[in-house]
Design goal:
heterodimer, A: about 120 residues, mainly alpha, 4 helices, elongated, B: about 200 residues, alpha/beta, two-stranded antiparallel ribbon, about 30% helix
Chain lengths: ~120, ~200
């Protein structure tokens, strides 16, 4: 058996298993011998910062919310471009300012369009 | 079986460590107490200062403030407990895993302090939950909290694993639940937990 080429692998496998399972077994044994479990209704209750939880956590959210997320994302990304624009503002020419204005106005137009279509109103 | 203290020191000098499971267990526990992140009033500011660089509670192994009672061992009642807040405090104490300890920090947590006469102030959190260390002061300085913490460590170190004087969390018979008071018509009901604190009789 010891001559088997996989013997050392088996020994290592058993050692690895023992390495993981021994602490678990010791913890289990410690709990059995010394530390009795005393569960009760208050202890097992859902943790809500000390308050009694109200209602069901499994409620549904409207998927229409993704439109808000998309519109928010447009302006979120816009801020990335606005920051270098603001930093370099004093050194910019009229053409650069005009280009930035067109960019911002395009996004605002997008928002106005979404607004006009009634996307911002919850049904 | 306890080892003679003198013999232990003598062996220690020779490089031989003699210990018991109980000692190892308590040594591990007392140096890794996780307090609950939980501030009630002005004393909480001192508690925060204690954990910061100047006073550094981390030296005692208690820097990990947990925002969940499931992961905390120590509740520091830092401030005035109003009657509105008391049920939440007791519920959080119940939701902590055992062994759990309580430090009542400051005059308010001990007795209601300067607000004792207030209609809405609980006259001491020890009416509902067992308190291990009381620190007087208004507010106690961070050094006082550190001393209270060291006293708690001493208490943890002295707890026995077996025997009739073993702590509550090791005793299967001892009740683990502390009733949460409810808002009654005039006061919290019950006004105190008789298993923890008895109402003194006023003799007129």
């Amino acid at each position: 058996m010891a001559s088997n080429p996989y013997f050392s692998l088996a020994v290592l496998f058993v050692a690895a298993l023992g390495f993981g399972l021994t602490p678990l077994a010791l913890a289990w044994l410690w709990a059995k011998v010394f530390s009795p479990a005393k569960p009760n209704a208050v202890k097992n209750a859902i943790y809500e910062c000390g308050l009694v939880s109200k209602g069901d956590a499994w409620m549904q959210f409207r998927s229409a919310y993704y439109l808000y997320a998309i519109i928010f994302l447009i302006f979120d990304v816009e801020a990335v471009f606005l920051l270098p624009f603001a930093v370099a503002f004093t050194g910019l020419g009229a053409a650069a300012c005009g280009a930035m204005l067109v960019f911002v106005l395009l996004l605002i137009e997008g928002l106005a369009w979404a607004w006009a279509k009634g996307v911002l109103t919850w049904a | 079986m306890a080892v003679d203290e003198g013999l232990k020191i003598e062996l220690g000098k020779q490089g031989v460590l003699v210990t018991t499971i109980e000692e190892l267990y308590n040594w591990g526990r007392k140096n890794s107490v996780w307090p609950m992140q939980f501030g009630l009033a002005c004393c909480a500011i001192e508690m925060i200062a204690t954990t910061m660089a100047r006073y550094d509670l981390a030296r005692f192994g208690a820097e990990v403030f947990r925002p969940s009672p499931r992961q905390a061992d120590l509740m520091i009642i830092s401030g005035t407990v109003t009657k509105k807040m008391a049920p939440q405090v007791v519920r959080l104490y119940n939701q902590m895993a055992e062994p759990r300890y309580v430090i009542a920090m400051g005059a308010c947590a001990i007795s209601g302090g300067p607000f004792k006469e207030g209609y809405n102030v609980l006259k001491g959190i020890d009416r509902y939950i067992p308190v291990d260390v009381h620190i007087p002061g208004c507010p106690p300085r961070p050094e006082a909290l550190i001393q209270a913490f060291m006293l708690l460590q001493k208490k943890i170190d002295g707890q026995h694993l077996t025997g009739p004087d073993r702590p509550r969390f090791l005793d299967a018979e001892a009740q683990g639940e502390f009733p949460v008071p409810v808002q009654g018509e005039h006061d919290l009901e019950p006004a105190s937990n008789p298993g923890v604190w008895t109402v003194p009789v006023v003799i007129r």
